[in-house]
Amino acid sequence: MQRTLVKHALASETPQDAILVAGWVRTRRDSKAFSFLEINDGSSLASIQVVADAGIPGYEDISKMTTGSSVQVEGRLVESPGKQKWEIQATAVQLIGGSPETYPLQKKGHSPEFLRSIAHLRPRTNLYGAVFRTRSRIAAAVHQFFLARDFVWVHTPIITASDCEGAGEMFHVTTLDPMADNKSYENDFFGKPANLTVSGQLEGETFACALGNIYTFGPTFRAENSNTTRHAAEFWMIEPEMAFTDLYGDMDIAEAFIKHIADTMLADESGDFEFFCKFVDKGLRARLEEISSKPFVRCSYTEAIDIMLKSGQKFEYPPYWGMDMQSEHERFLTEKHFKCPVIVYNYPKEIKPFYMRLNDDDKTVTAMDVLVPGIGEIIGGSQREERLDILEGNIERLGMDKDAYYWYNDLRRYGSVPHAGFGVGFERLIMFVTGVQNIRDVLPYPRTPRNCEF
Ligand code: 4AD
Ligand code: MG
User: Fold this and answer.
1) Is 66 exposed, middle or buried (0-12, 13-18, 19+ CB in 10 A)?
2) Which end of the chain is more exposed for a tag (fewer CB within 10 A), N or C?
3) Nearest-CA neighbor of 301 among 257, 342, 253, 355?
């Protein structure tokens, strides 16, 4: 007999004479003549209740079917007298793998900190099961959004020689022993310095300037020493890049994208979204509904600084024109002042990377950040500098190696076009739609400073 997923069994329209499910025991209660088993196979938040009468084949092992053990059940799907619609009246049960009392998930209600220390087992809990099913669903929604708009998914390299953001926060890729003497890039695998990518943007731009609209979606790496709830050393980024598009076209796509993801979550009927609304963040549904239905505010950097200066709000870092916004500033704007998502644009050129397009004021560049309540910055993007002379000027001014970027500059040499794009932090997106507050709880195996377990 073929295995039925618990979620399909629970969604059945009719009773079924023969059904087989398999999963892990959440709880078991015994009485004299029968036992109740709650079985979860990870296909849904909900478990299925199994009634196993004493004496059916396999019942001799019932005492070994402890919390955490794996079992297979054959039986009939029947209407349940309890609060759930269906249960299984077992005709046979089989212990697959036992689970002694050392199993760490005996009881409910462990702290996230403890569960992070057992990251290999935490997907078996309600919260993490819901988070990782949602992560998969939202990844699919990301592809849907772009493919429906004729964007081409480009797999930009993970190993690269460039530093897109110019922040020097790279993990080096080398085959040389760090303890050995006489190290030289000459002897290294690539014959020159190489690192894990901080962003697929630069390579993405070359494809946008050939295929029109493209996006990347993959892992990125940053060796920034920020131990916050919103930073990881390894995270996933979605980076669309659009030819023949300016900053305003860029903002339009970014806003439509966030709305599409909010709508996807609001339409979720798996039970996972409901779980987040009930147990993780009571304000989640209302927030996503607002985001889906109302236009985002667009506010220039200069206006944003002005608003903060006039607000009377106390900031740890007092705002001034020219500063890089901190999380407290972002959250003030989106949570306190506008109370909705805000797109801040036209930032001072000094605080932004070399590739952003210089505005006519000669002071600002066409950067834009999307800030959302609860998270702060979720998207960073810009229109790119398409004028060769200005771009080369930036590269020189910042002391970058001009020769290393010849291929990037070629886009400006041969058929240069206005183009723009942005990067979405995928984990921040998942935090945003689940209400989960710590990035460590939406990554299967979070990598943060001094932490590379599993
Ligand atoms: O603002 P960032 O640095 O922009 C770029 O990398 C551009 N190259 C994107 C582009 O224009 N194609 O990063 C983009 C987003 C941020 O808004 C944030 O959501 C996320 O990536 N992000 C991180 N997420 C988790 N951990 C970190 N350490 C992150 N750093 C950035
Ligand atoms: Mg940014």
Assistant:
1) middle
2) N
3) 342
Q: How many angstroms separate the most distant Cα atoms in the chain?
A: 85
What's the whole-model pTM score? 0.96
Tokens of 391: 């771009």
Q: For residue 50, how far is its CA from the centre of ligand 1 (angstroms)?
A: 47
User: Alpha-carbon Rg of the chain, whole angstroms?
Assistant: 26
pLDDT at 388 over 80: yes
Position 10, amino acid: L
Distance CA 46, CA 229 (A): 29
221 neighbors 157 (Cβ within 8 angstroms): no
Three-class SS state of 10: helix
How far, in Å, from the CA of 108 to the mean position of ligand 2? 38
pLDDT attached to residue 408: 97
**How many CA atoms lie within 13 Å of 72's alpha carbon, on the beta-carbon side?**
11
Six token digits for residue 392: 């080369």
Please say whether the beta carbons of 441 and 112 come within 8 A. yes
CA 243 to chain centre: 26
Q: Give the Cα separation of 228 and 449 in Å (integer).
A: 10
Q: How far is the CA of 380 from the centre of ligand 2 (A)?
A: 4
Structure confidence at residue 95 (pLDDT) = 98
**Per-residue pLDDT at 178:** 81
Please list the alpha-helical segments (H only) found in 23-88.
Answer: none
Q: Which atom of ligand 1 is found nearest the CA of 377?
A: 17
For residue 355, the one-letter residue type is Y
Q: Give the DSSP per-residue string, 115-166.
A: HHHTTTTGGGSHHHHHHHHHHHHHHHHHHHHHHTTTPEE----SEES--TTS
pLDDT of residue 109: 85
